[in-house]
Amino acid sequence: MEKALLNVEGMSCGHCVKAVEGSVGALEGVERVLVDLKEKTVAVEYKDDAVSLDKIKETIEDQGYDVV
To answer: Residue ranges of the HMA domain (predicted)?
Structure first.
């Protein structure tokens, strides 16, 4: 199990949390997603043999947010 803490710009409300957690959480291999609006971070636990960190970042960006 891998863990990553991503800095994400553009998240500001509950809808943002739901969009990111829902889309990333739906990826095969993602075990846990936790958005922290105050810190502008997304913590992800995932199986690196099932999903890549690049795919997780791409999924967040597809929701309209910037992974920095």
So the answer is: 2-68
What is the value of pTM for the model shown? 0.94
The strand ranges marked E within 1-68 are 2-9, 30-36, 41-46, 66-67
Ordered structural domains, the chain, with CATH:
2-67 (3.30.70.100)
Averaged pLDDT of the chain: 97
- Residue 43 burial (10 A CB sphere; 0-12, 13-18, 19+): middle
Question: What tokens does 22 get?
Answer: 């829902």
Query: 37-55 pLDDT, tens per residue?
Result: 999 999 999 999 999 999 9
